[in-house]
Design brief:
The protein is 79% helix and 0% strand. The protein is mainly α and 247 residues long. α1 (3-23) crosses α3 and α3 (43-62) packs across α8.
Length: 247
C-alpha cells in the first residue's frame, strides 16, 4: 500500500462517509467516481473496499433503528437486488478485462443520472406508495450497478424519494438495503475467489475512518437540512460524473 495512494483514498472515504451518514446515500458514487477519475486503484478493487466500508457505516448508523422500517419493502427490494448483483459482477469481470474505457463511461453516466434523479422529486402531497413490483425492479437495477461498481444507490434513491416517507425514514431504508447488499456482494466476490490481501488491508485501514466520521455525523450533524445536503451531494455527483465523461 503506497502512501501516495492510501492517504488520498482515505480522505475520499472520509468525505463520502460523512455525506452518506447524513443523507443516506452517495458513499459508493463519490468514492468510485473520484478514485476512478484520479486513477488511484482499479474499479474492481475500489468496489470491494466500498462494500466493506458501507457495511460498517450502515451498522453504525442503523443501530437501534430497524424497528422503524417496513421489513416487507426491504425484503422485496433485496429479492430483486441479488440476481441483479450477479449480473453486475459478470459484466464487471468482462468489461474490466478489455473495455475499461467503456466501463468508466457507464460509471460517469450512472453517477450523473443518480444526481439528476435525486434532485428531481415530486411534491410531498402528490406522493403515493409504489406497488411492490416497483421496489423489486428498483432492487434489480440497483443490484446490477452494485455488482459493477458497488454503488447501487441511483435506482433506490429515485424510488424511495418518491414515497410518502420522511427524509429520515428514507435514509434508514437506503442504509438498511446497503447493509444487506454489502454483505451479499462481499460474499459473492469471495466465492468467486476475487478477494485479495490488498483489498482486505485497504478496507481494514479505512474502517476506523468510517467509524470515526459516522460517529461525528451522528452526534454532530451539520446545521443544515437533509434537503440542502442532498443538493450538495447533487453538485458533487455532477462534477464527478462529468469528469469521468470528459476526461
Amino acid at each position: 500500500m503506497l502512501v501516495e495512494t492510501l492517504l488520498p483514498f482515505m480522505a475520499i472515504i472520509a468525505v463520502a462517509t460523512y455525506v452518506q451518514s447524513i443523507a443516506g446515500f452517495a458513499l459508493g458514487m463519490i468514492v468510485m467516481g473520484t478514485v476512478t477519475t484520479f486513477n488511484l486503484v482499479p474499479i474492481a478493487f475500489t468496489s470491494v473496499v466500498i462494500s466493506s466500508v458501507t457495511l460498517m457505516n450502515s451498522i453504525f448508523i442503523l443501530k437501534g433503528c430497524f424497528g422503524q422500517l417496513n421489513k416487507r419493502i426491504v425484503i422485496i427490494t433485496v429479492a430483486g437486488m441479488l440476481p441483479g448483483m450477479f449480473i453486475g459482477l459478470t459484466l464487471l469481470e468482462y468489461l474490466s478485462s478489455s473495455f475499461n474505457e467503456v466501463l468508466q463511461t457507464i460509471l460517469g453516466i450512472a453517477i450523473i443520472g443518480a444526481g439528476i434523479s435525486m434532485i428531481l422529486k415530486s411534491p410531498h402531497k402528490d406522493r403515493k406508495h409504489s406497488k411492490e413490483p416497483t421496489f423489486f425492479c428498483a432492487g434489480t437495477a440497483s443490484g446490477i450497478l452494485n455488482g459493477m461498481f458497488s454503488m447501487g444507490g441511483p435506482p433506490l434513491v429515485y424510488i424511495f424519494y418518491r414515497q410518502p416517507f420522511t427524509l429520515n425514514l428514507i435514509r434508514l431504508y437506503l442504509l438498511s438495503i446497503f447493509f444487506v447488499s454489502s454483505i451479499s456482494r462481499l460474499a459473492m466476490v469471495g466465492l468467486r475467489g476475487e478477494l485479495t490481501l490488498d483489498m482486505l488491508l485497504f478496507s481494514a485501514v479505512c474502517i476506523p475512518i468510517v467509524l470515526g466520521v459516522s460517529w461525528l455525523a451522528k452526534h454532530y450533524p451539520p446545521p443544515i437540512s437533509l434537503d440542502i445536503m442532498r443538493r450538495i451531494a447533487f453538485c458533487m455527483l455532477m462534477v464527478i460524473g462529468s469528469s469521468l465523461l470528459f476526461r
